[in-house]
Amino acid sequence: MAQNGAPRQQQPQQPPPSMYPSQGQMPPSGSSFQTSPTSNGGASSPPQQSYIENILRLNKGKLASVFMTFEGAKENNTKLFKGIIEAAGRDHLILSDPQTGMRYLLPLIYLDYASFEEEIEYAPEFGGVPR
Fold first, then answer.
1. pLDDT digit string, tens, across residues 5-56
2. Is 28 helix (H, G, I), strand (E, B) or coil?
3. Helix or strand or coil: residue 116?
4. CA-CA distance, 92 to 49, in Å (whole number)?
5. Is residue 44 a contact partner of residue 35, using CB atoms and an 8 Å limit?
6. How far apart are alpha carbons 115 and 95 in whole angstroms?
7. Three-class SS of residue 100?
8. Keywords on this record (predicted)?
């Protein structure tokens, strides 16, 4: 209680500073590739990043072979998924198998690599012009 008899209001506790980046600074899961900064009249801009999920989005509608490793699996912890890329999010990939009609929601945390039988659409700065 405060000196005047009124109950004391508790101040919200701030968590201690962390050595880990805040949520806003965390990159999406999956690998990222950085290009070097460009010069714009003496001022440098931050490096552009191209994340796996952005590359997968650029290749929506293409047939992909996706290789994943599931840690802790007793047998056959490596699995191949083959299908058409329907969507890719920050932490997941949706594939549809044209042979079976089965759709897979795959967490990107398990992604080893993906291969394509055709040219891969790629833009170092996502949202830029694909190559």
1. 655 555 555 444 443 344 344 444 444 444 444 444 445 545 545 689 999 9
2. coil
3. strand
4. 18
5. no
6. 13
7. coil
8. Capsid protein, Virion
**What tokens were used for 27?**
């990159």
Length of the chain: 131
84: which 2 tokens? 């058409």
Dihedrals phi, psi of 119, to nearest 5 degrees: -60, 140
Q: Which two tokens stand for residue 105?
A: 């929601």
Give the C-alpha separation, 5 to 127, whole Å: 61
Note every long-range contact of 104-107, with CB atoms under 8 Å and residues 24 or more positions apart, other chains counting.
106/66, 106/68, 106/81
Interval 51-108: pLDDT, tens:
899 999 999 999 999 999 998 888 889 999 999 999 999 999 999 999 999 999 999 9
Q: Which two tokens stand for residue 122?
A: 């790629």
At residue 122, φ and ψ (nearest 5 deg) are -150, 135
Residue 118, both tokens: 């055709």
- Nearest alpha-carbon partner for 125 in 36, 41, 44: 36
The pTM for the full model equals 0.59
Question: Rounded to 5 degrees, what angle do the CA atoms 112, 117, 122 make?
Answer: 70
